[in-house]
Amino acid sequence: MTVIATNSIRENKNMRKPIIAGNWKMFKTRDEALFFILQVSEQMPNIKDVETVVFAQAPLMRCLIKRQGSNLRIGAQNLFYEDEGAYTGEISGPLLKSYKVDYVLIGHSERRAYFHETDEIVNKKIKAALRNQLKPIVCVGELLEERENNQTNEVLERQIKKGFEGIKAIDMKNIVIAYEPVWAIGTGRTATAEMADEACGYIRKLVSELYGKVVAEEIRIQYGGSVKPENIKELLSKENIDGALIGGASLDPDKFIQMANAALK
Questions:
Q1: Is 180 a catalytic residue?
Q2: pLDDT category, 14, cuts 50, 70, 90?
Q3: Residue 96 pLDDT more than 70?
Q4: Contact yes or no for 201/157 (Cβ under 8 A)
Q5: Residue 39: which region, alpha, beta or left (left: phi > 0; alpha: psi -120 to 50)?
Q6: Alpha-carbon distance 91 to 80, whole Å?
Q7: Closest listed residue to residue 196, CA positions, set 164, 239, 248
Q8: Is 139 domain-assigned?
Q9: Catalytic residue from among 51, 108, 117, 142
């Protein structure tokens, strides 16, 4: 197994731009979303220092993109793996690109659980995103039962190897990986910063085995799972954590502003 030296990780962490993303899930009406965007768009850190993204429901994206400002980006919560066809209710990559969407969320645990998305489907969606010049944030993580049975690494290895099958090293620069332990999402339970860093470090080691040391040192890995203003600084201080994928706390404008600015180095 390839092992990345701690000093190398620390040096490259300083080179990786933090990325803070809020996943609104199925929350906010149009008026609520517009209120949020008007509150935060001018309060985000400079995009040269920190990338900030809000993943909103599809009907909200157009009006939010028009008001996102220069330092915030609006992302899509999902896309289909075909570019067009008779797939009622799905969203295509070309449509998202025409809206000037940059980021798309892929493989979120809720998509895997409620909509039965497999690693193979995740793989096809990653390829569809890249094909349409979209940047995927790819979610991986274990269930509580898997954590308790010491299967975390086994689950992460399966999800990474199957999810990224056929993805080229050159494409990895446009991909972000989000480690989100399922047992810590919306439950109020949070992995300790040490647990989160250990899992993110293992993901980085897997990327190194698949794509080499340089790619592993450059790829950004977020943590997601009950992230809030009270714990984000400690999480972001860890060597392998380059950002956060935030759920409930990202619905509050003041909290989102606070967490985005916590990523400034």
A1: yes
A2: confident
A3: yes
A4: no
A5: alpha
A6: 6
A7: 239
A8: yes
A9: 108
The CATH number of residue 21's host domain is: 3.20.20.70
Secondary structure (DSSP) of 48-103:
TT-EEEEEE-GGGHHHHHTT-TTTEEEEES---SSSSSS-TT---HHHHHHTT--E
Residue holding tokens 């990345």?
4
Please report, for the chain, how many H helices and E strands are present, in that order. Answer: 12, 8
Asked whether residue 64 is domain-assigned, the answer is yes
- Indicate the number of domains in the chain: 1
Catalytic residue (choose from 117, 142, 146, 180)? 180
Residue 115 placed within a domain: yes
For residue 63, CA distances in Å to 59, 68, 153 come to 8, 9, 41
Average pLDDT of the residues in 65-70 = 95
The answer to whether 108 is a known catalytic residue is yes
Asked whether the predicted pLDDT for residue 263 surpasses 70, the reply is yes
Specify the pLDDT at position 185: 78
Q: Is the pLDDT of residue 111 over 70?
A: yes
Q: What is the mean pLDDT of residues 170-195?
A: 90
Range of the domain at 61: 6-40+48-261
Specify if 177 maps to a domain. Answer: yes
pLDDT at 7 over 80: no
Predicted confidence at residue 153, as pLDDT, reads 98
Q: Distances in Å between the alpha carbon of 174 and those of 14, 147, 198?
A: 18, 29, 23
pTM: 0.94
